[in-house]
Every structure is written in structure tokens, then in C-alpha cells.
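Progress note, project year one: complex with nicotinamide-adenine-dinucleotide.
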Amino acid sequence: MALEEAKIRRQPAEKELSRQVVLVVGGGSGIGREVALLAAERGAHVVIADRDIAGAKKVADESKAIAGKEAANAVAVDISQRDAIRQALRELIALYGGLDILINTAALFPSSPDGQISDRHGA
Ligand SMILES: NC(=O)c1ccc[n+]([C@@H]2O[C@H](COP(=O)([O-])OP(=O)(O)OC[C@H]3O[C@@H](n4cnc5c(N)ncnc54)[C@H](O)[C@@H]3O)[C@@H](O)[C@H]2O)c1
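Model obtained:
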């Protein structure tokens, strides 16, 4: 066997989400927290975004304990503010260079008579 092939075989097997960057909006609590921890277990790099930054940091620490200290980060975001979303995405790109999977559990379910949802409904 070539030396190079022997080296490759010694690498740990990749996990389902290895080399994937996962953004979990609302990840500071509840369903989002569970999703973030599952993604970390499955090998992802996880960014936990929440308007509750203390909650997000706690979940980032829990994710780091599973996947390693480079594998998780918390960012602040309020998804009712477009500028805050832009800023959170800039932070994510500065950390990991891009995004593969977006999960949003900080859901808002506004309704309107004409079916059109404007920014005002999320405020
Ligand atoms: N838990 C359930 O059984 C269930 C069932 C059906 C639907 N849902 C819906 O799923 C969503 C998540 O549920 P959960 O139980 O995880 O709730 P949760 O309250 O535990 O978590 C929601 C997270 O979203 C964050 N958040 C809220 N508004 C935000 C905003 N504007 N910007 C950024 N972050 C924001 C909160 O800080 C919180 O950390 C909710 O909309 C809920 O109504 C939940």
C-alpha cells in the first residue's frame, strides 16, 4: 500500500455533518438548542444565533463540549431587524467563511388579510 493511502486510512471517519456550517437561529433555547447539540454530535460547525445572547453562549459552550472548541460559536440576532440579520451573517462568514445549512426556530407566525407579510408584522 502506498504511504499516502496508509495515512488517509488513519484519518477518523467523517461524520454525517462534517465540514458543514450550520446556523441555528433561536438556538439559545428549546427546539433550537436540541438541534444545535444534535448537529454538533453529527460533526457540524454550529453557529447559535439568538436575541438571548446569554442563552446562545450557553448552548455554544455545550456544543463545544461535544464537538471541540473551534466547532461552535454564539452570535446575537433579533430576526425582526434586517440590519441585525445582516450583522449576524457577517459574523458567521468571518468565523467560518460561509453557510451550508440554515435552521430557524425563532419563528414568528404573523398573518394578514391579504396574505402579504411586511417587515412591520415582525416588529
Ligand atoms: N415546543 C413545541 O412543542 C412547539 C410546537 C410547535 C411549534 N413550536 C414553535 O417553534 C418555535 C420554537 O419553539 P421552542 O419551544 O424551541 O421555543 P423557545 O422559546 O424555547 O425558543 C425560542 C428561541 O427563539 C429566540 N427568539 C425569539 N424571538 C427571537 C427573535 N426575534 N430574534 C432572535 N431570536 C428570537 C428566543 O430567545 C428563544 O431562545 C416557536 O415559534 C414555537 O411556537 C413549538
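Residues 53-67 form the longest helix (15 residues).
Helices lie at 3-10, 30-41, 53-67, 82-96.
No further modelling is planned for this target in the current period.
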